[in-house]
Specification:
With 119 residues, this protein is α+β, with helices and mostly antiparallel strands. It has 3 helices and 5 strands. Bound molecules: adenosine monophosphate and zinc ion.
Length: 119
């Protein structure tokens, strides 16, 4: 079981307000903000307030949190005007997955046609 906050974590500092962010959404369990280096016209990062180092760090006790994450992402995508044309959710995990910040985050990316497969 990981602690609620990790003092060395960039995204925990964003949640705490110690590092500024462009907030898009928040509730008791989740926080969303605009990616500082957007890959598309809309690029939002949705994170749990609880520090989990990545999606594979989630356990059975996080079942509801993971469900809330996807449902909130759907609401954000709709609010951002992405629902009609479509968009992409991405969770990078680990070195080969391209994860650079080790606090679980869901990328919500849209606003242009996206290519596949990823590089
Ligand atoms: P990942 O590569 O999946 O770990 O994604 C990390 C994301 O965090 C990247 O898309 C970065 O552009 C983004 N990022 C890093 N620092 C910040 C920050 N201070 N505010 C907003 N987004 C950030
Ligand atoms: Zn964290």
């Amino acid at each position: 079981m990981e602690s609620i906050m990790n003092d060395d974590c960039l995204f925990c500092k964003i949640i705490a307000g110690d590092i500024p962010s462009n907030k898009v959404y928040e509730d008791d369990d989740l926080y969303a903000f605009r990616d500082i280096n957007p890959a598309a016209p809309t690029h939002v990062l949705l994170i749990p307030r609880k520090h989990l180092s990545g999606v594979t760090a989630a356990g059975e006790e996080d079942r509801e949190l993971l469900g809330s994450l996807l449902l909130a992402a759907n609401r954000i995508a709709t609010a951002e005007g992405l629902a009609e044309d479509g968009f992409r959710y991405v969770i990078n995990n680990g070195k080969h997955g391209g994860q650079t910040v080790y606090h679980l985050h869901l990328h919500i990316i849209g606003g242009r046609p996206l290519t596949w497969p990823p590089g």
